[in-house]
Design goal:
Layout: E1 37-40, E2 47-51, E3 63-70, E4 77-81, E5 99-105, E6 112-117, E7 126-127, E8 132-139, E9 149-154, E10 159-161, E11 165-169, E12 182-188, E13 193-203, E14 218-223, E15 230-234, E16 243-247, E17 251-257, E18 266-275, E19 280-284, E20 287-291, E21 303-310, E22 318-325, E23 337-342, H1 347-350, E24 366-367, E25 372-379, E26 387-393, E27 402-404, E28 409-412, E29 421-429, E30 438-448, E31 459-465, E32 468-473, E33 475-477, E34 481-485, E35 490-498, E36 504-512, E37 516-519, E38 523-526, E39 539-545, E40 551-560, E41 569-573, E42 582-586, E43 595-596, E44 601-607, E45 616-624, E46 630-632, E47 636-640, E48 653-659, E49 664-670, E50 686-693, E51 698-705, E52 714-715, E53 720-726, E54 737-748, E55 771-774
Length: 794
């Protein structure tokens, strides 16, 4: 017997007159239904577990799993590994058989990599910096080992704050915090803002006489990150006063650390965002003037300004200094205020420290290597000088990058050589509306300074297709590299920082009339021209995906190709990445047995050489919906009854919970045929919708339905709902299909809260109509608009 969900009820009935009833043994096992997915930890369910399939038994060979795990805004996550950690020892050579777990500090594979784990040593616990984590488990070895199991939960303290205002407090405040604790918070907003912090309560042990706060428990505040400028370190008590700290950066690093001695109440801090008019801007246009604050008057102390200058496509930015008066310390020669110019689009993470510009001598003009240039101005001294004035223009053509045209072309770095400094090149192909084709890149020169074992930190070339990270390369390749994508909306990016020369890249691209992306449906795929012979020199790339948590079965119905798999072949990968495990490489006339994925992505790649031809292949894919229910946070999707479109089974229970961030409600639309066993009270087979009131902390029934008629569309009053489907032991129907989506708006009954426009602080979408109902009858509601207010005026 196999359950339909992750819960089973076992009932034991023993008659009161029974005697000599024998004991029994009930054996059960977990049934593998795929791996990976989009997972969420919440304050109601503060931890979850992720593991390699079948743990602690070995996974199947050629397995790939990807998890995206998200916790509530403002929190961090802690990852703790079980002691039984067993993998192959080869971690980094992706071209060879390997087995590893890769963690990224963010929600995508392009987020900052933390570490790649393999071998037999239990990894140490790890804390994310934010509220998102990407994990990827890959095994392409013949005999996988036990794998891993990890517990992921909301960290006791620390996190990321991105809202307009917030509160940070020590653990257990106002009660005493514990010993040997370290908490880190990152306060992050977009670059045109800064922060004001107010510490209204501070209570830690005082340091010994003659020593500073590092000798006891302390609160530390820095610009940007752990290596940023130290703003303040506090310990002891503030008495009856408060401490207001203005941090000029859009990002603040706050650390609280306690030792093994005494403790105290800790601290209570409020954080509020400020708008920095004119000091932190994104500048677009052909030319302009940039000056320090108050120029030509004296620069204010404790000021940090960032300007991001964006050139039009195909151009680059040039800076010309007109005036410069930023004094140095007369004794040490240290810059009291200074400018830094960065070429990198993501300078904070990828760019080494640029030279500090100060003094009175005008620098030579600075020319960016790409369409992005960051100008950063810092002052922490009262004697900051008169400031600076410079002009910028975008007259010069970009040395690399730009818009590429279909169906073919060239991607190359200028003169195939980059001598020194920093390079950031991005080439984009806009083929968003082109379907059922394959984009083929052929890299004849690929030489960048990064090292794969170091996550290509010094230099990397990566290719994105659609929104998927298709492949990443670094080092010097001596043979041609071919990369394909089923998405013609694609870009290639080269980012490198080095003092040594390197060749860069030279690649050609073209489009073939086969392949493409297939989503959410059972598919039939054939070679071009089937059942007639395929053409020589053909490359096709199909990507099939089903909803997260589901898997697929691929069946090769017919196979008639050349018998040499080095010439013409069909390649199947368990995932979408160029390094995803290979499930099979096929040729000849013998069709393989059906293949089952462990991922919700499946790659089908077909390639032929210049000689010979044959009818090719026909294959089908089928989605496997084993199990039902789950936690859903996706903006839109579909929920279906088990076995849909066939009849659902007996004694099935499925439960889905849909939860969105504040400011959104859930809309349900019942599409297609609706057929659940008819009953006057819907007590046999039924579909139940409940809503969760976060203020009252309880569920309430919103809708229960059955029968043959489609219910009307349903709009929730809260951001969290629960859908339960249950069937009894007789009479089955065709079930249901529910299309769910997030709709802006809210119904708020709690005492205080925040309302955000959709996507805030990014731009909202067009054609929106959001309604926010606040409070209850007889209440007065006070609304306060922060200074971050930007709505179209017409």
């Amino acid at each position: 017997m196999e359950s339909s969900s992750n819960e089973v009820y076992v009932q034991i009935v023993i008659s009161s007159i029974a005697s000599g009833v024998p004991d029994f043994v009930l054996r059960y096992s977990e049934n593998f239904v795929g791996c990976g997915g989009h997972l969420y930890v919440t304050h109601e369910t503060p931890y979850l577990e992720m593991s390699s399939p079948n743990y602690p038994s070995p996974s199947l060979p050629e397995t790939e799993c990807e998890w995206i795990i998200v916790s509530p805004s403002g929190t961090r996550m802690r990852v703790d590994f079980e002691s039984e950690f067993r993998m192959a020892t080869n971690c980094h050579e992706e071209e060879e058989a390997t087995e590893y777990l890769q963690l990224h500090d963010g929600g995508t594979e392009m987020a900052e990599p933390y570490r790649r784990f393999c071998g037999n040593d239990q990894p140490s616990s790890w804390m994310t910096q934010g509220n998102a984590l990407f994990a990827r488990y890959v095994t392409s070895v013949t005999n996988p080992q036990a794998g891993f199991k990890a517990r992921v939960g909301i960290a006791v303290c620390g996190g990321t704050l991105t809202s307009l205002r917030g509160v940070i407090r020590s653990p257990n405040y106002p009660n005493n915090y514990g010993n040997s604790q370290e908490c880190v918070w990152l306060l992050k907003v977009s670059m045109e803002y800064s922060w004001t912090l107010e510490i209204t309560d501070l209570n830690t042990p005082r340091p010994p006489w003659g020593q500073n706060c590092s000798a006891t428990d302390y609160l530390e505040i820095r610009n940007d990150n752990e290596n940023g400028v130290l703003i303040d370190t506090l310990c002891g008590s503030l008495g009856n006063t408060s401490r207001v700290i203005k941090v000029p950066s859009e990002q603040v690093y706050v650390k609280f650390k306690s030792n093994s001695a005494g403790t105290g109440k800790g601290f209570y801090m409020t954080a509020v965002v400020n708008k920095d008019e004119g000091c932190k801007q994104v500048l677009e246009g052909a030319s302009g003037v940039l000056t320090s604050p108050n120029y030509p008057n004296a620069v204010p102390a404790m000021k940090e300004c960032r300007w991001r200058i964006l050139a039009p496509e195909g151009r680059r930015v040039k800076l010309i200094f007109q005036e410069l008066n930023l004094p140095r310390d007369e004794v040490t020669g240290i810059c009291l205020s200074y400018l830094q110019v960065h070429n990198a689009s993501y300078w904070r993470y990828q760019m080494p420290d640029s030279p500090k510009i100060c003094g009175n001598q005008l620098p030579a003009p600075i020319v960016a290597s790409s369409a992005h240039l960051f100008v950063n101005f810092f002052t922490y001294s009262l004697n900051a000088g008169q400031g600076f004035s410079l002009t910028y223009n975008t007259d010069e053509e970009s040395t690399c990058g730009g818009i590429l045209q279909l169906p073919s072309g060239v991607v190359s770095t200028p003169n195939f050589t980059v001598e020194e400094g920093f390079v950031d090149c991005k080439w984009r192909i806009n083929g968003r509306n082109v379907k059922n084709q394959t984009l083929i890149y052929r890299f004849d020169i690929l030489d960048v300074p990064g090292i794969l074992a170091n996550y290509c930190r010094n230099g990397v070339v990566y290719v994105v297709g659609g929104r998927l990270f298709m492949g990443r390369f670094c080092g010097n390749f001596t043979t041609q590299v071919v990369l394909t994508t089923p998405f013609l909306d694609s870009f290639v990016r080269l980012v490198a920082s080095t003092e040594k020369p390197f060749k860069g890249i030279y690649a050609t691209y073209n489009v073939s009339d086969c392949g493409g992306s297939i989503s959410g449906v059972d598919a039939v795929i054939t070679s071009p021209g089937y059942p007639n012979n395929y053409a020589p020199n053909t490359i096709c790339h199909w990507l099939i995906n089903v909803p997260p948590g589901e898997t697929m079965t691929l069946t090769v119905e017919e196979l008639n190709m050349e018998s040499d798999c080095t010439k013409d072949f069909l390649l199947i990968r368990n995932g979408y990445h160029i390094a995803s495990p290979v499930l099979g490489r096929f040729c000849g006339t013998h069709a393989p047995v059906p293949i089952t994925t462990t991922e919700n992505f499946l790659t089908v790649y077909f390639q032929t050489d210049a000689y010979g031809s044959a009818p090719g292949f026909k294959l089908t894919t089928r989605e496997i919906q084993r199990g039902c229910g789950g936690l859903i946070h996706m903006i839109r999707g579909n929920i279906t009854s088990p076995n849909r479109p066939s009849r659902y089974g007996n004694n099935v229970e499925c439960r889905w919970t849909i939860e969105y961030v504040p400011g959104f409600l859930v809309k349900l639309e019942f599409t297609g045929r609706f057929d659940i066993e008819t009953d006057a009270t819907c007590s046999k087979d039924y579909l139940l919708v409940e809503e969760y009131d976060g203020y009252l902390r309880k569920w309430s029934r919103a809708l229960i339905t059955c029968g043959p008629s489609n219910p009307r569309p349903y709009m929730s009053r809260n951001r969290k709902i629960r859908i339960t489907f249950r069937s009894n032991d007789n009479i089955n129907g065709d079930g249901f299909n529910i299309a769910y989506s997030a709709v802006c708006g809210a119904n708020i009954t709690s005492g205080t809260g925040d309302i955000f426009s959709p996507n805030y602080p990014d731009a909202y979408d067009n054609s929106l109509n959001c309604t926010y109902n606040i409070g209850t009858a007889g209440q007065y509601v006070e609304l306060s608009f922060y200074d971050l207010f930007s709505i179209e005026s017409k």
